[in-house]
Write a structure and sequence with these properties.
Distance between the termini: 52 Å
CATH architecture of one domain: 3-Layer(aba) Sandwich
Structural class: alpha/beta
Helix content: 40-55%
Mean pLDDT: 81
Shape: globular
Strand order of the largest sheet: 5-6-7-3-8-9
Low-confidence stretches: 542-554
Largest sheet: 6 strands, mixed
Number of strands: 22
Strand content: 15-25%
Radius of gyration: 30 Å
Number of helices: 23
CATH superfamily of one domain: P-loop containing nucleotide triphosphate hydrolases
Length: 628
């Protein structure tokens, strides 16, 4: 029997119906991933199931005594108290006892009062009688796993930490249906992996919204997609869903094309001359009117964002050179003895636990912080764009248009003037939405707006700190393609494992103790290389007899992006050698020096850059060829 059933649910907020007669059942054991474009109603559906919103029409049937817990994207106002209090409040009747026990124990540790000791013993007995003692241990276990300070004041926490607290509150409540709205936002990769394991082992039924494809692939056994007011459920995992949805969209395009051709034929027929009108078939006329109405009510699928990067003049071949760099806060090492070289065109991923120093490393690489020891050398001709995960570059009081245009009605994009409204439509903002204040936008819309604001400016170094939060799958795919084609240098901080796999060519991994290690490739490549190192270390510690046993080697294969990179390298090398030959020819011509002036120095400098680039390209080609 279904835990909850939605039957013919309708809901609208003054515009086209958000839900136009949707039906959905959630059965015990479902791990249902809810997908859809930004603004399609995913968060609203979760609130409706939670009982926070009533439907305008239809019926919701719940099993008697059904317990539902929702972790929203938005942080509720008025939540107060310590982290322990907030998390323990998810325990229901035992919450007050748990909270008081925790506070009395904390106070007793400070002053050792006899009265407090007596009260603590009484609370201990009460917890044992109600089974609350095991609940107390569960609260502490989840707090520890999510790296939360039990005694911290909830109101003083950052937005990301508050969301982790609310996630802990939902987890300890042991609901029949746990609902999570973008649960991986602001969590580091290690915690996301833990959350996957925890949900798989401890939560039987979960309904979640996510943009994290690796999370959806690992966790889901059903998929539901909201699209133009309807919901389409698929009893399969994420990869099968992608295949089936593409087939459905192709079939829809074919059906609509056939419908439109039929309507066009009937319109030609009804507009024929007087003779045709005298013999007109009235049934056919009624059928035409029905076709017109059906076409009028058709809701077109939302378009795909058309994002372009405005690239500046190329930077120098060397972007950053770090040698023995160290940096500490209050005596705690954040970056320790870090050495690396980043050259133009590198796409570098940066990963590590929250608080491990990713932002500090970025600021060092950009020259915004001076290392306390070691040296940072920056290259020439650098134009940097910075995508900030906290979206502090957006003014919530101003409109979408004002945030991007900064007082201007037109922008210059790749040398051509564009009206700001047309430019914003490329990022899926209608003219009406473009005039709305940023404060009313969803998280995904704000991320798209920040992309629009940044990409209206030129760059040759792009720094992106968690750019994937709240973006829908289509925009995420487009951003991936865009970054793959970007000829400048990319520094990317992300917890999205698939995004890292598809975009970056090398990864800097922070361990949280100041150590920074560099690996070739993306997230999966790092896991493979780290596993090989661990295996090698284990082998070194084995007795001689164990070492003598033959070990099966698992040769690393080229990833998809490495295959594409290898295919492109011969053409790149040929182009570089051709440019090198042209410059040699010019510099060997005596006539050139008669009017060249300062151009001689420019060409010689470019020749030096070409030698650097060719050496790097040949080395990379040999490295990838060896893996084939």
């Amino acid at each position: 029997m279904a835990l909850i059933s939605l039957r013919n649910i309708t809901l609208a907020f003054g515009g086209p119906p958000l839900f136009d007669g949707i039906n959905l059942q959630i059965e015990p054991g479902d791990r249902l991933c809810l997908l859809g474009r930004n603004g399609s109603g995913k968060s609203t559906l979760l609130k409706l199931i939670d009982g926070e919103l009533p439907p305008e029409g239809g019926e919701i049937q719940r099993q008697q005594g059904l317990r539902v817990a929702l972790v929203s994207q938005e942080i509720s106002q008025g939540v107060e108290g310590s982290v322990f209090d907030v998390v323990a409040s998810g325990m229901g009747n035992a919450a007050a006892l748990l909270a008081e026990y925790h506070h009395v124990a904390h106070q007793l540790a400070l002053d050792g009062d006899e009265e407090l000791l007596g009260r603590l013993e009484a609370l201990q007995h009460a917890l044992e009688e109600t089974g609350g003692w095991s609940l107390h241990q569960e609260v502490e276990r989840v707090l520890k796993r999510l790296q939360l300070d039990a005694d911290a004041d909830f109101s003083a926490l950052s937005g990301g930490t508050k969301r982790r607290v609310l996630l802990a509150k939902a987890l300890v409540a042991a609901p029949d249906i746990l609902m999570l709205d973008e649960p991986t936002n602001h969590l580091d990769i290690e915690t996301i992996c833990w959350l996957e394991e925890f949900l798989l082992k401890n939560v039987r039924t979960v309904l979640f919204v996510t943009h994290d494809r690796a999370f959806a692939r690992r966790l889901s056994n059903r998929i539901a997609e909201l699209d133009r007011g309807r919901i389409y459920a698929f009893n399969c995992g994420y990869d099968q869903f992608v295949e089936r949805r593409e087939a459905l969209l192709e079939a829809e395009i074919t059906r609509q094309a056939l419908f439109d051709r039929k309507l066009a034929r009937e319109e030609v027929w009804v507009r024929q001359g007087i003779k045709a009108r005298r013999t007109r078939n009235e049934g056919r006329v009624r059928a035409l009117k029905k076709l017109r109405e059906e076409r009028r009510q058709r809701r077109e699928r939302q378009g795909t964002a058309r994002i372009q990067l405005h690239e500046a003049e190329r930077s120098g071949a060397l972007v950053v050179e770090a040698e023995g760099v160290s940096f500490a806060f209050d005596g705690r090492p954040v970056i320790k003895d870090f050495t690396a070289t980043i050259i133009r065109g590198d796409r570098v991923g940066i990963i590590g636990p929250n608080g491990s120093g990713k932002t500090t490393l970025l600021r060092l690489l950009l020259g915004e912080l001076t290392p306390q020891s070691g040296a940072i050398k920056l290259g020439s001709r650098q134009e940097v764009l910075y995508f900030d995960q906290m979206r502090e570059q957006l003014d919530l009081e101003k409109s979408v248009q004002e945030n991007v245009g900064e007082g201007n009605d037109t922008l210059v994009i790749n040398g051509r003037p564009r009206h700001i409204i047309g430019y914003l439509q490329d990022f899926l903002f209608s003219p009406e939405r473009a005039r709305s204040p940023v404060g009313i936008l969803s998280g995904g819309e704000r991320n798209r707006l920040l992309l629009a604001k940044l990409f209206s400016k030129s760059s040759n170094i792009l720094v992106m700190d968690e750019p994937t939060n709240d973006l829908d799958a289509e925009t995420l795919d487009l951003l991936e393609d865009l970054l793959m084609e970007y000829s400048g240098t990319l520094l990317l901080v992300s917890h999205d494992r698939e995004f890292l796999n598809n975009v970056v060519t090398s990864t800097l991994v922070l361990g949280g103790n100041g150590e920074v290690r560099e690996f070739v490739g993306g997230y999966d490549d790092w896991l493979r290389q780290a596993a090989v190192e661990t295996s090698a270390a284990s082998t070194a510690a084995m007795p001689v007899q164990e070492k003598a046993r033959p070990q099966k080697e698992r040769p690393r294969k080229l990833s998809f992006k490495e295959e594409r990179e290898l295919e492109a390298l011969p053409e790149l090398i040929a182009a570089l050698e051709e440019e090198q030959e042209r410059l040699h020819t010019r510099l060997s011509d005596p006539e050139f020096y008669k009017s060249a002036g300062s151009e001689v120095a420019v060409l010689n400098a470019r020749l030096s850059e070409l030698e650097w680039e060719l050496a790097g390209a040949y080395a990379r080609w040999e490295e990838l060829e060896a893996l084939r």
